[in-house]
């Protein structure tokens, strides 16, 4: 029985890892296609039908391109930086519930690598470790532009992690659990007892703060100050090329995918979808439809990330800091107070 359990988890980890890599690879194509549409041009279209082989061509170029390591850099840390960034980005999906349990051959198979009762703390821990890869890479490059980009990334992550954590506190006051599986289960369906079950309707301000902080944590426009090309050449990965550069770029898209999955789970019901219990289908079919519903929500958020990038200009660095410390943190604290008052009044009534 234990061997079957281990085999199930190994298969699930492998499938999630391959799906993550595939989505990260084709997010590069989607981003270029969306940019082309917004800017009134075609985008990649020569590598295969509709440019579908472009990510493979880009990956091959990164893999076989000459690796250049600056002579005055710290060689070990120069290699460790992108490796750490890619590792921390990949392990964040371990606590995300991808769907309801499947029953196959009398066995109940959970579509979640592990359900720990502090899943949200695990996510925050992994996110906070991700900046070390950027810091190490920027410092080890022995380049002033790389170091400046790394310092910006560290300051940005510290600033916006505080607001993100405070926004989650209000959500935890409503849900009463740190387990992502428990939070998803509480949002069963879409409508129950005369009220919307999805947390975005219960905590709209918390969601707004969280998604703004997610843009900053992923270093996405308008918060891509660590790699602003017009100021810092390419920021923290100025000296990188070949596969190591590809690892940094891949880590950004994986972070975007995981952030979209976390937002979908926390605020938009996760694998739950409207009228899921009224279809008259078997539990396994509903579970599979739930997985598809979760990925539809994830793809929407990925599109939203890309849409914002090609729509809104980059902030100045002082504007970035002011927004984090003077606007988002006070808003998150106010949201905690309002949520506490609302819960107290509700209990008294």
From TrEMBL:
Biological process per Gene Ontology, one example term: aerobic respiration
Membrane spanning residue stretches: 6-29, 76-99, 119-141, 162-184, 196-216, 253-273, 285-308, 328-345
UniProt xrefs under Pfam families: NADHdh
InterPro entries in the cross-refs: NADH_UbQ_OxRdtase_su1/FPO, NADH_UbQ_OxRdtase_su1_CS
GO MF annotations in UniProt: NADH dehydrogenase activity; oxidoreductase activity, acting on NAD(P)H, quinone or similar compound as acceptor; quinone binding
Recorded superkingdom: Bacteria
Record flagged with keyword Cell membrane: yes
Any single GO CC term annotated in Swiss-Prot or TrEMBL for this entry: plasma membrane
Catalytic activity field: a quinone + NADH + 5 H(+)(in) = a quinol + NAD(+) + 4 H(+)(out)
Entry EC number(s): 7.1.1.-
Entry keywords, A to Z: Cell membrane, Membrane, NAD, Quinone, Translocase, Transmembrane, Transmembrane helix, Ubiquinone
Membrane topology value: Multi-pass membrane protein
Subcellular location: Cell membrane; Membrane
Primary localization class, coarse: membrane
PROSITE patterns: COMPLEX1_ND1_2 (PS00668)
UniProt family annotation: Belongs to the complex I subunit 1 family.
Subunit note: NDH-1 is composed of 14 different subunits. Subunits NuoA, H, J, K, L, M, N constitute the membrane sector of the complex.
Function (record text): NDH-1 shuttles electrons from NADH, via FMN and iron-sulfur (Fe-S) centers, to quinones in the respiratory chain. The immediate electron acceptor for the enzyme in this species is believed to be ubiquinone. Couples the redox reaction to proton translocation (for every two electrons transferred, four hydrogen ions are translocated across the cytoplasmic membrane), and thus conserves the redox energy in a proton gradient. This subunit may bind ubiquinone.
Protein name in UniProt: NADH-quinone oxidoreductase subunit H
């Amino acid at each position: 029985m234990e061997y079957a359990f281990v085999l199930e988890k190994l298969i699930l980890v492998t499938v999630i890892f391959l799906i993550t890599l595939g989505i990260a690879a084709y997010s590069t194509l989607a981003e270029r296609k969306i940019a082309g549409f917004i800017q009134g041009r075609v985008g990649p279209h020569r590598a295969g039908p509709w440019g579908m082989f472009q990510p493979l061509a880009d990956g091959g170029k990164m893999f076989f391109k000459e690796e250049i390591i600056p002579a005055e850099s710290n060689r070990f840390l120069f290699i460790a930086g992108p490796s750490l960034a890619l590792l921390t980005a990949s392990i964040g999906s371990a606590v995300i519930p991808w769907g309801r349990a499947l029953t196959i051959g009398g066995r109940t198979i959970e579509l979640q690598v592990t359900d720990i009762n502090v899943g949200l703390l695990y996510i925050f821990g992994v996110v906070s470790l991700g900046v070390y890869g950027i810091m190490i890479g920027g410092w080890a490059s022995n380049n002033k532009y790389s170091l400046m980009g790394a310092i910006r990334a560290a300051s940005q992550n510290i600033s916006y992690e505080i607001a993100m954590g405070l926004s989650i506190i209000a959500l935890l006051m409503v849900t009463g659990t740190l387990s992502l599986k428990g939070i998803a289960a509480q949002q069963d369906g879409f409508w129950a007892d005369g009220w919307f079950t999805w947390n975005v309707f219960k905590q709209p301000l918390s969601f707004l703060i969280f998604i703004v902080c997610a843009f900053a944590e992923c270093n996405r426009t308008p918060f891509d100050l660590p790699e602003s090309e017009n100021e810092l050449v390419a920021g923290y990965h100025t000296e990188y090329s070949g596969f190591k550069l590809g690892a940094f770029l891949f880590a950004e898209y994986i972070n975007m995918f995981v952030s979209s999955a976390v937002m979908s789970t926390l605020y938009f019901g996760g694998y739950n979808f409207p009228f899921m219990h009224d279809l008259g289908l078997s539990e396994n079919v509903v579970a599979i439809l739930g997985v598809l519903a979760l990925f539809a929500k994830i793809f929407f958020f990925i599109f939203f990330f890309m849409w914002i990038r090609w729509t809104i200009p980059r902030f100045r660095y002082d504007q970035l800091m002011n927004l984090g410390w003077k606007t988002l943190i006070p808003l998150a604290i106010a949201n905690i107070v309002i949520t506490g008052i609302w819960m107290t009044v509700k209990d008294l009534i």
